[in-house]
Design brief:
Elements: H1 16-19, H2 35-48, E1 53-57, H3 64-77, E2 83-87, H4 90-103, E3 107-109, H5 119-126, E4 131-135, E5 151-154, H6 160-166, E6 170-173, H7 178-188, H8 194-201, H9 207-211, E7 214-217, H10 225-233, H11 243-255, E8 263-266, E9 270-274, H12 284-288, E10 291-296, H13 304-309, E11 315-317, E12 330-334, H14 344-355, E13 357-362, H15 365-374, E14 381-383, H16 393-397, E15 401-406, E16 421-424, H17 433-439, H18 445-460, E17 470-475, H19 478-485, H20 487-490, H21 495-508, H22 512-524, H23 527-543, H24 552-570, H25 574-586, H26 595-616, H27 619-636, H28 658-673, H29 677-691, H30 696-709, E18 713-715, E19 725-729, E20 733-739, E21 748-749, H31 751-758, H32 760-768, E22 775-781, E23 786-787, H33 789-794, E24 799-802, H34 804-821, H35 830-843, H36 848-855
Parallel strand pairs: 1-10, 1-11, 2-4, 2-5, 3-4, 5-10, 12-17, 13-15, 13-16, 14-15, 16-17, 20-22, 21-23, 22-24
Antiparallel strand pairs: 6-9, 7-8, 8-9, 18-19, 19-20
Helix pairs in contact: 7-10, 21-23, 24-25, 25-26, 26-27, 28-35, 29-30
Length: 863
């Protein structure tokens, strides 16, 4: 008989929780829902069924995926519409499909190119018979091929920013697409200083110039946009096989009509053009959904989720206040850089070999290559990104192997015997130019702190997916070691993780043999570990208390205004955008730790108001823009990044500051004393020779000479406990430098080192008989980047650290400055040189204000 019969109607339930026992029996179903799943599903059914944007938080390995699948399946069965479950990667799509099949939940895999989708699977989704499981890229692209849905459930939403922003970010690599990079750079060149342009076109710039990131709000440069558009349009002519070019081409289409609402970030190696938050309101599939659910192990409270997905407000679904916190296994953290008298790299390799297998997580492909050469045991099998793109099964079943993955802090599940070791080999502080700009020049790391914290937490938990799992976690790099040594960082983590980190820090300060013994004890998971280590961990856990990160309330309140400002820009309402950004900045008034980000918001508000003033030819709005810019400059201090883009077009250049005049006047005299070009070259060669030495007797005089070349009154104070070199611009700005050039790279910065630095400014003030100027800094120059916990505690708020490489970069830029300064010898009267010298200092970003900015980017106890 050829008649097709209708499928019987699916069972329905009053709530997602009550649907669970009605799911099709597969023989592999979970016996019951966990308490935390029941709590959240009941809260959802009672209060949040109609919420447009809803976030659900459950720790790693405690059932968030099943919770999301049940909600999606329940809404689908209730006839509310189609449902989509969204994963970061194709490998996770496969994993979720397998998990859904195990539970008897109807799903279809719609990953990969839409032309390759199984027509029957596509029809099942479109007729509302199954939930589609797709990667983020199927939602966030120029033309989503899925038809509209009632609910979108985003798994691992804490990692969503990199996947969502990718759809709206045109990334131009100097290495892979040099012609397009060059074209984009030439398009914006008129807005760059001559010296900055020179740095960017060099084939081999200094380390400082290579890492520097400039941020250009494209609303400032209407006349440059056609040239930039032409340059970015060249991606369309690249071969179809070039996946990077294809991604950039589609991103350019997504933002092409709204470049003025975007920001351009430029470094020596890359240019990125993107909106600050994603314009997800333009995405029809995303925007039309009746409900968007964001599942996460680490939601945070600083508005990061709203910024990541471009939503003004996302409600949170919380477990009951008195509900016990679910656990997700035991981690034993080891910090090789804290273990006395060992080579951290060799010890890391030894630990990986001892465990027998490890997943190694690094921030970038470049760092993956380094890790592959240094910490992977010889002859071992190495699985890279492409080897695990579809499945982790081959790695899970292998022995004497590592999975070496770049920027994969989430979406990897290796429970039980699949893998017993995670190696964190690189601090995940920045993954794109916007984050690098925030973390460095803008002093706005606070806005990305939630994201960084999530990466670290997720990376640590890759092999502990359930309460009975256990794994060794090797923190193999200096920066993450210092990051987790900071008390204020640990306190923002769960009590369980706090106790594991503190226990690991304590144990890693013992001898290598003691650490080896503890590792063996942990791997046995016997009575010795339970009776000794677990007892100690319980004690630490009892006193641990999780706190909200500093500035979180202000940042969360600001997020709504930031997202709304982007939509106003997109629609050409620049005045409204400015007002929204000013509101966002105002939310941070009572949070001084977020002052750098407040300055960023104020500057963006100024740019938007100036754009509105130009379009309306409105002098009053122009004055408002100038006032906002002045507030931004003040809030940013000591950062100076925005002065390169001020004043706005048509305004007068302000008079030099008294510090700049002081430096210029001093240099106008020094110009006469340096002698011929050959003699000057010899002086710099001598200085560079000293700065390359370990011996403090050579290093310290070279530091003082560098200060003199920068227009400071530079000297080594006499007397005990004084700084090694003091740079004073009259009594308006001082910098003291403690040279620890004899430090070995693999050591740690200790309490004594830090206390020395703390007191140097006070001693200079005592010697000079005046108070310390507000614009001053005490700086340690050391190759070490690992700081002991006790040293972090005693470090002063105005105590900073640089590496010898940072000093060399400053010296290189100073030598370049003097190529111009020596030409001013032709002007005979020193006082007539002052204006030209001030201009050169401004052009080379070597004003006293710029120097204090450069030397105060990293506090002694920070990363």
């Amino acid at each position: 008989m050829a008649i097709k019969k209708r499928v019987d109607a699916e069972l329905r339930a009053e709530t997602p929780e009550k649907l669970f026992p009605l799911l099709r029996r597969t023989g592999n179903n979970s016996d019951t829902l966990w308490p935390q799943q029941v709590d959240l599903l009941r809260e959802y059914a009672a209060k949040r069924v109609s919420a447009k944007d809803l976030a659900i938080e459950l720790p790693t390995g405690t059932g968030k995926t099943l919770t999301g699948l049940l909600i999606a399946d329940w809404r689908r069965r209730e006839g509310k519409g189609r449902s989509v479950f969204v994963c970061p990667t194709v490998q996770l799509v496969r994993q979720v499909v397998a998990a859904a099949d195990k539970e008897g939940i109807a799903v279809v895999d719609l990953s990969g190119p839409h032309t390759m989708w199984d027509p029957a699977a596509k029809a099942e989704y479109e007729r509302g018979r199954a939930t589609a499981v797709v990667p983020y890229s199927s939602i966030f692209n120029v033309s989503p091929k899925l038809i509209d849905a009632d609910v979108l459930v985003f798994d691992d939403a804490h990692a969503g920013e990199q996947y969502v922003s990718k759809a709206y970010t045109v990334s131009v690599s100097r290495h892979s697409h040099p012609a397009i990079y060059s074209g984009a750079l030439e398009a914006i060149a008129p807005k760059l200083s001559k010296e900055r342009y020179h740095q960017l076109i060099q084939n081999n710039p200094g380390a400082g110039s290579r890492e520097l990131v400039d941020s250009l709000a494209l609303a400032q440069v209407d006349d440059l946009l056609p040239g930039l558009t032409r340059a970015l349009g060249l991606f369309a002519a690249e071969p179809q096989s070039d996946k990077v070019a294809r991604s950039a081409k589609f991103a350019h289409v997504a933002i092409g009509g709204h470049l003025g609402a975007c920001t351009l970030y430029v470094s020596w190696s890359k240019i990125e053009v993107r909106p600050v938050t994603p314009p997800s309101f333009e995405n029809p599939l995303f925007a039309s959904a009746n409900q968007r659910i964001y599942l996460s192990a680490t939601l945070g409270t600083s508005g990061e989720l709203e910024r990541a997905f471009g939503r003004p407000a996302i409600r949170r679904l919380h477990r009951p206040a008195n509900a016990p916190s679910p656990t997700s296994g035991r981690r034993f953290l080891v910090f090789p850089h804290l273990i006395p008298d060992v080579d951290p790299t060799q010890f890391t390799r030894e630990l990986i070999a001892t465990v027998g297998k490890s997943i190694i997580i690094v921030p970038s492909d470049r760092e993956a290559d380094v890790a592959g050469d240094t910490i992977v045991p010889e002859t071992w099998t190495v699985f890279r990104k492409n080897d695990v793109e579809d499945s982790l099964d081959d790695f899970a079943q292998s022995t004497k192997s590592v999975a070496l993955l770049a920027n994969r802090y989430d979406g990897i599940d290796l429970p039980g015997e699949a893998c017993r070791s995670v190696t964190i080999a690189g601090y995940p502080g920045v993954t794109n130019l916007q984050e690098r700009f925030y973390a460095s020049r803008a002093r706005s790391a606070v806005v990305s702190a939630e994201r960084v914290r999530s990466r670290v937490v997720q990376g640590i938990g890759r092999c502990t997916r359930g309460p009975r799992d256990w794994s060794v976690v090797i923190v193999a790099d200096r920066e993450t070691t210092t990051y987790l040594s900071r008390d204020e960082v640990r306190k923002t983590l769960s009590a369980d993780l706090q106790s594991e980190i503190e226990f690991g820090l304590d144990q890693s300060e013992q001898s290598a043999d003691d650490v080896r013994e503890n590792i063996a004890m942990f791997l046995e998971q016997g009575e010795d570990w339970r009776d000794n280590a677990e007892t100690e961990l319980t004690k630490i856990r009892a006193s641990a208390q999780q706190v909200e990160p500093a500035a979180a309330p202000g940042l969360a309140a600001a997020a709504r205004h930031e997202v709304e400002s982007l939509e106003a820009m997109w629609n050409g309402d620049w005045r409204a955008a400015s007002e929204k950004l000013h509101l966002a900045a105002t939310e941070l008034n009572s949070h001084p730790i977020a002052r750098g980000y407040q300055a960023v918001l104020l500057f963006r508000a100024a740019v938007a108001m100036d754009k509105s003033a130009r379009e309306a030819v409105d002098a009053e709005q122009g004055a408002a823009a100038d006032a906002l810019a002045a507030q931004a400059v003040e809030a940013a201090k000591p950062a100076t990044w925005m002065t390169a883009f001020l004043p706005f077009a048509g305004r007068e250049i302000p008079e030099p500051s008294s510090m700049l005049r002081s430096a210029a006047q001093r240099l106008s005299i020094v110009v006469d004393t340096v002698g011929s070009a050959a003699k000057l070259k010899l002086s710099f060669a001598t200085m560079f020779e000293g700065l390359s030495q370990i011996d403090h007797k050579a290093y310290e005089p070279a530091l003082t000479q560098l200060g003199k070349f920068l227009g400071a009154d530079a000297f080594k104070p006499s007397g005990d406990a004084r700084t090694d070199s003091a740079w004073c611009w009259d009594n308006e700005q001082w910098i003291t430098l403690e040279a620890k050039s004899e430090h070995k790279t693999d050591g740690v910065i200790g309490v004594h080192d830090t206390q020395q630095v703390n007191g140097h400014l006070e001693l200079v003030a005592e010697d000079r008989g005046v108070p310390i100027p507000s614009a001053s800094a005490a700086v340690m120059v050391s190759p070490r980047t690992v700081v002991k916990r006790e040293a972090i505690v005693v470090a002063g708020d105005n105590s900073w650290r640089l590496t010898p490489a940072d000093i060399l970069a400053l010296a290189t830029d100073t030598e370049r400055l003097w190529e111009g300064l020596q030409l001013l010898r032709n002007i005979k009267a020193p006082e007539e040189r002052v204006g030209g010298i001030a201009d050169l200092l401004r052009q080379h970003l070597l004003r006293p204000e710029d120097i204090i900015d450069r030397v105060t980017t990293t506090r002694i106890g920070e990363v």
